[in-house]
Predict the structure.
Amino acid sequence: MAATLGRMGMSARFSGEIVQYYARFRRGYPPAVTDRIVEAFGLTADDVVLDLGCGTGQLTTALAGHVGTVIGMDPEPDMLSAAAARTSSNQQPILWVLGSDRDVPVLGRALRPLGALTVAVAIHWMDRDALFRTITPMLRPGGGIAVITNGVPLWLHDTDWSRELRSFLHAWQGRSPSACQTDAAGLRLNRDALTSAGHHVTETTVDYAAPLSVEDVVGGVLSAMDLPPEEERRRFAAELTQRLRAYAPMIEDVSVTLQLAVPR
Ligand SMILES: C[S@@+](CC[C@H](N)C(=O)[O-])C[C@H]1O[C@@H](n2cnc3c(N)ncnc32)[C@H](O)[C@@H]1O
């Protein structure tokens, strides 16, 4: 099911072809991540959870079996279409809503209190201070906010394959690739904003190791870039594939961080 709140298609960064890379190559979340969220806020089949910046639904679909309804909300129609396509064949209780952090107040007026707001790999695109203040009165007693990173970007691992990737990207882009606020400074921004909005914050990680093919790395990196035109993209993929071949098979140590906040 899909509904529209307005404010569509905010940036080319998350529309068009990039969505296919996102849907195919971005990792989902292991059960331990949803378990921590469910435990932190005592979520049950009576709860509604808002997954804001849901993208192609990685966390939304993982949460769906644990609560009454998950609202996957994102300002990008292409992201939502790909998310809805993943779930069209089953009966998961998910409502896909087109809207951004700025639409949350309108949504709140239409809903009963939320069990949780989840924001996974998307908070850096939002006005977090305004969002946390807006959402707080929309939470049911015991409910809370989970801000999640899905580990650090592929180019920031302490491994030979990641160092090779880092040096390749540095040469390709003429600058160091960013941490996308998955680093200590980014986590501090969330913690400070949650604390200022009147929350008590606890932090935890879910750590696991997963295999990565060269294709996974190339696709994952492309999903995080301003997608170059096709010919340049092919050259990028061919050169990076060549550089990484020597490191296969690769392993990624994924450390998902969860900042779990409840009103004080
Ligand atoms: C990197 S994706 C994260 C997708 C997914 N939550 C995950 O864990 O993989 C970031 C998403 O945030 C969305 N986004 C960007 N600005 C936003 C905003 N102001 N409000 C809500 N979502 C936003 C983008 O459209 C994109 O789908």
Remarks:
- The chain has ten helices and eight strands.
- The beta strands are 2-4, 48-52, 69-74, 94-98, 114-120, 139-150, 199-212, 250-263.
